[in-house]
Amino acid sequence: MTSKTSKSVYLFIAITGFILSFLWENQHFTLYANYAQWMEQVYFVLCSLADVLLIFLVYFLVALIFRNPYWIHHLAAAQILTTLLISALVSFLAEKIALYMNWWTYTDQMPLVPFLNIGLSPFLAITLLPVLTFLFSRKINQIF
To answer: Whole-model pTM?
Structure first.
């Protein structure tokens, strides 16, 4: 594995993750109320950038588990399942922290994840977006 390939896939992860997150944020923003004042002006961009950081956190946690920083190039069911599980845990923790810090609250339209008491939309975002980002980024990296 060349360092060029590794560096380019990280760039593709950042770009793909940002685009997917930005699209997701635009679709579910009406489920939130009472954003922190600093978020109102640049809500979509900041949340999308934060999501990209979470996506990279998931990537590197999976790399640690499999002891392979290039795992994305050899995707198998084990890596995808591990990514989903880690993403769900990261999603839960990130959303709990955001709610605790009062960065936002939910409207009555936000469905909640049973037993976890967090919004379904943000939970699904950070659970699914890393896997989608890695799959798309891997494919883009193969093309370029």
So the answer is: 0.90
